[in-house]
Specification:
This protein has two helices and five strands, in the order H-E-E-E-H-E-E. It is of the alpha+beta class.
Length: 171
């Protein structure tokens, strides 16, 4: 049994999710230093920022799983400016919109997690990996030097881990 998913698989899956959602206009994997810096040039809001997962070993010693703790943020809204820290109306408009997008993204991940086979008959690598009860939604903001508000979505993907060594990788 080999590990089912990789870091790149997760990042690409979330980028694909963002691309398919009509409400998300820009997405990218961001780095920690971007949290309080400017957004990337050419960004159109709402923005989905994707974070690299944290990986923990879980389950039992005889049957280990890799728990990929994943996260993305939905930030900003086109035409609504939140740089005035006293403008709660603008902030609430953006926060409501971000939560709606985050919840719809959750629904889409649940749907894709429940499909055993792709339309071409191949096994869906995402089937049964999503821990539906792990989802958390947290209001964030202001973040970045653009004073953005939104919602952070965190969830866990549980992937089997193969603990057998690959002999050709060792001397």
């Amino acid at each position: 049994m080999k590990t089912k998913i990789t870091h790149s698989d997760i990042i690409e899956k979330l980028k694909d999710l963002a691309e398919k959602h009509q409400g998300i206009k820009t997405s990218y994997r961001w780095n920690l230093n971007e949290f309080d810096g400017p957004v990337r040039p050419g960004t159109i809001f709402p923005l989905m920022t994707i974070e690299s997962p944290t990986v923990e070993v879980g389950n039992t010693e005889s049957l280990p799983f890799l728990n990929y703790q994943c996260a993305f943020n939905i930030l900003g809204m086109d035409g609504v400016y939140t740089s005035d820290r006293n403008d709660e109306k603008a902030q609430n408009t953006v926060i409501n919109n971000a939560l709606e997008i985050a919840l719809e993204s959750f629904r889409k991940l649940i749907q894709e997690n429940s499909i055993a086979f792709n339309t071409d008959g191949t096994k869906n690598k995402w089937y049964s990996l999503l821990d539906k009860l792990s989802f958390q939604f947290t209001k964030i903001g202001p973040v970045t030097s653009d004073y953005l508000y939104g919602y952070r979505c965190e969830f866990v993907l549980k992937s089997p881990f193969c603990s057998e060594l690959t002999p050709e990788k060792w001397q």
